[in-house]
């Protein structure tokens, strides 16, 4: 299985009609989703078209400087999205830096493990492997870190009196906030855990499906998907633990006081 069916833009029209049909239902049922749906579809088409042109150029050039530049842009944009998804944000550079720093460490490590241990492309920075792998890991890290930090700040605000009581009784800050920490980490990791539990029986992941449609042997596509899921979970878990840990240190000080004034 090596051949794949090539698509043209006209081939996308029947599938696009399903979106138009749903837009019509939104108008008919007065759901108020037409504008949001239209903006989302237009953004998707423009973004995918642009990234397609960029990746085509990147694959042809295979320049490590350009590849690292694209990876850095992806990371910075992911950090901004993680920051924007939090209801209560840390003030100052910490609001952006905690999530972005955790993603940089976790996604870079997971991508390096995948490229260096299993795939081993030559050269190691081949963009057709490095960029898609980094993108999948970053996307899941973004979700986990944003959920973890949002849960951390919201729970700390809600349980402020209980936390301050424990601190007043002499508990160290890490012990006093241990329950909040566990809840934030569990919330951040739960989406990828649920995704792994459903993969293969309830859902067929997009990467595996895309490889099969492109002509890759099913068992080979499954092995690639297993690799990616392991890397995603490893990166997401490490990113959530790092981000929540840094968040706990920022929410307290060395005198073991709760510092909710450091939130916006």
TrEMBL record:
Pfam families: UPF0014 (PF03649)
Coiled-coil regions listed in the entry: none
InterPro entries: UPF0014_fam
Regions that span the bilayer: 12-34, 41-59, 65-83, 95-119, 131-157, 192-214, 226-249
Keywords, alphabetical: Membrane, Transmembrane, Transmembrane helix
Subcellular location field: Membrane
GO cellular component: plasma membrane
Topology within the bilayer: Multi-pass membrane protein
Domain of life, per lineage: Bacteria
Family under the similarity heading: Belongs to the UPF0014 family.
Protein name: Putative ABC transport system permease protein
């Amino acid at each position: 299985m090596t051949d794949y069916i090539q698509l043209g833009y006209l081939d996308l029209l029947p599938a696009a009609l399903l979106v138009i049909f749903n837009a019509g239902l939104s108008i008919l049922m007065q759901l108020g989703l037409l504008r949001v749906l239209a903006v989302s579809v237009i953004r998707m088409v423009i973004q995918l078209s642009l990234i397609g042109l960029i990746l085509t150029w990147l694959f042809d050039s295979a320049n490590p400087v350009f590849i690292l530049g694209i990876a850095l842009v992806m990371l910075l944009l992911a950090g901004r999205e993680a920051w924007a998804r939090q209801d209560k944000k840390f003030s100052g550079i910490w609001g952006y830096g905690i999530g972005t720093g955790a993603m940089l460490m976790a996604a870079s490590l997971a991508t390096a493990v995948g490229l260096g241990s299993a795939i081993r492309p030559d050269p190691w920075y081949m963009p057709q492997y490095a960029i898609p792998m980094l993108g999948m890991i970053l996307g899941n890290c973004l979700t986990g870190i944003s959920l973890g930090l949002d849960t951390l700040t919201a729970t700390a605000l809600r349980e402020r009196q209980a936390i301050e009581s424990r601190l007043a009784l002499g508990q160290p800050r890490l012990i006093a906030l241990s329950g909040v920490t566990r809840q934030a980490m569990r919330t951040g990791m739960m989406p990828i855990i649920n995704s792994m539990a459903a993969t293969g029986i309830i859902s067929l992941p997009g990467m595996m499906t895309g490889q099969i449609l492109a002509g890759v042997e099913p068992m080979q596509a499954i092995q690639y998907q297993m690799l990616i899921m392991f890397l995603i979970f490893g990166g997401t878990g490490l990113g959530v633990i790092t981000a929540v840990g840094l968040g706990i240190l920022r929410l307290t000080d060395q005198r073991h006081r709760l510092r909710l004034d450091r939130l916006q």
